[in-house]
Design goal:
By secondary structure, the chain is α/β, with parallel strands linked by helices. The chain has a domain of 214 residues: NAD(P)-binding Rossmann-like Domain (Rossmann fold, 3-Layer(aba) Sandwich). Helices cover 40% and strands 16% of the residues. The strands form four sheets. Strands 3-2-1-4-5-6-11-14 form an eight-stranded parallel beta sheet, with helices on one face. Strands 7-10 form a two-stranded parallel ribbon. Helix 1 packs across helix 8 and helix 3 packs parallel to helix 5. It is globular and about 65 Å long.
Length: 328
C-alpha cells in the first residue's frame, strides 16, 4: 500500500523544496492543499501520485476524509495578516486539521512552528505569549494545544530558525530577500562589532530533514537524537538550524566572502544602542524591545548532519554562494 502525505503551504519557499525532496526520494501519494495552484512552480502534470486540492485551510473540513486516511500530515501554512485571520489560520484551523487525523493510521504529524517561541533549552518562552506579535502568540497557543491533543504521541513540532532559500523556480524566503541587501553594505558593516548570536538554515536542508523524518521509523529517529544528546521524548520538538553563529563571526565571514578586510571595529554595546533609540525617538513594539534586549537567539538545533545526512548548505559561505548564484 502506497503511503499518503497531506501537505499545506506547498507553494511557499520551504514547501517547494519539501515537495521536490519527497518526489525525488519517495513514491508516496501527495495531497497538496493550495489556495492558488498557479503559485506552485513545480510541474506535477505528469505525476499521478500528486493530487492538487484547490482550497484554503479555512475550509479544511472539506478534506476531513482525506486527512483521516493519510499516513503523514505536514503543516507549513501560516498567516501574518490581521489578528482574526492569524489566529483562525495559525491556531483554530491548524488544530482542526490535526484533529481529523486518525491516530491509529497516522504515523507522524509534523507541525511547523517558529523558533522564536522557544528559549535556549527548547522550552516555551513565556515572553512569546505575553509580548509576542499576533503571529508569535498564535504559534505559542497552537503548540500548547497540539501537545495536549489526541495526536500528541505522533506529533513532531519543528521550529525553523532564520530561513534562507529560493531561486528562479522557488519563492524566496523573507530572510533571503533582506540578506543580500545587508551584504551590499558589508563595506560599512565590517567596522562594527555586536554581542549577539543566531542560527541560519537553508530551506533545502529543512526539506532534507523533513523527508528523513517522514521516511524513517520513529524509534530510529529517537536513537539518532539520543546519540546527539537531544531530547527524544514524544511529542518531539526539533529546532532546525546550522550551528550557532555570532554576529561578529558572521560579519567576518561575509567580509571575507566579498574580499573586504576586517580592521578596527566600533562596539555597538547595549548602552549605545539604547542611547541611539532614545535620541532618535525610535518607536519599538514590546516584542521588538524584548528581542533587542535578548540579543542571543540560540537553541539546541538539528540539521541533516544530526541524522547522518550531508547538509547542502552547512556554512554561511555555502549560503552566500547560493545567494549569489540565484541573484536576479
Amino acid at each position: 500500500m502506497v503511503k499518503r502525505v497531506f501537505i499545506t503551504g506547498a507553494s511557499g519557499c520551504v514547501g517547494h523544496y519539501l515537495v521536490e525532496s519527497l518526489l525525488s526520494q519517495t513514491d508516496y501519494e501527495l495531497f497538496l492543499l493550495l489556495r492558488d495552484p498557479q503559485k506552485l512552480k513545480i510541474d506535477v502534470s505528469d505525476r499521478p501520485n500528486v493530487k492538487i486540492l484547490e482550497g484554503k485551510i479555512q475550509d479544511i473540513y472539506k478534506y476531513r476524509d482525506i486527512l483521516g486516511s493519510v499516513n503523514f500530515a505536514i503543516s507549513t501554512a501560516a498567516a501574518w495578516g490581521e489578528t482574526i485571520e492569524v489566529f483562525e489560520t495559525n491556531v483554530y484551523k491548524t488544530q482542526e486539521l490535526f484533529g481529523y487525523l486518525n491516530p491509529d493510521l497516522c504515523e507522524k504529524a509534523i507541525y511547523f512552528s517558529t523558533a522564536s517561541i522557544l528559549d535556549q533549552n527548547n522550552q516555551t518562552l513565556p515572553a512569546a505569549e505575553s509580548l509576542g506579535t499576533d503571529y508569535i502568540r498564535s504559534k505559542y497557543a497552537c503548540l500548547r494545544n497540539l501537545e495536549r491533543s489526541a495526536i500528541k504521541s505522533k506529533l513532531i513540532s519543528v521550529f525553523p530558525t532564520l530561513v534562507i532559500g529560493g531561486d528562479k523556480d522557488k519563492p524566496r524566503s523573507h530572510i533571503s530577500r533582506g540578506f543580500r541587501e545587508v551584504a551590499k553594505y558589508i563595506g560599512w558593516i565590517r567596522f562594527f562589532r555586536a554581542d549577539a548570536s543566531f542560527h541560519l538554515v537553508h530551506a533545502a536542508d529543512i526539506a532534507q530533514t523533513i523527508t528523513y523524518l517522514v521516511k524513517t521509523d520513529l524509534d530510529q529517529i529517537k536513537t539518532r537524537l539520543a546519540e546527539a544528546e537531544l531530547d527524544h521524548k514524544m511529542p518531539l520538538r526539533l529546532v532546525l538550524g546550522m550551528p550557532r553563529l555570532t554576529v561578529n563571526e558572521a560579519i567576518a565571514e561575509v567580509a571575507t566572502f566579498y574580499n573586504k578586510k576586517i580592521g578596527w571595529q566600533f562596539n555597538l554595546n547595549p548602552t549605545l544602542i539604547n542611547l541611539i533609540i532614545k535620541l532618535f525617538n525610535v518607536k519599538m513594539a514590546a516584542w521588538d524591545r524584548y528581542c533587542l534586549d535578548q540579543r542571543h537567539f540560540t537553541y539546541q538545533v538539528v540539521n541533516p548532519g544530526t541524522f547522518g545526512i550531508m547538509p547542502k548548505y552547512g556554512s554561511l559561505s555555502d549560503i552566500l554562494t547560493n545567494l549569489e548564484a540565484v541573484a536576479d
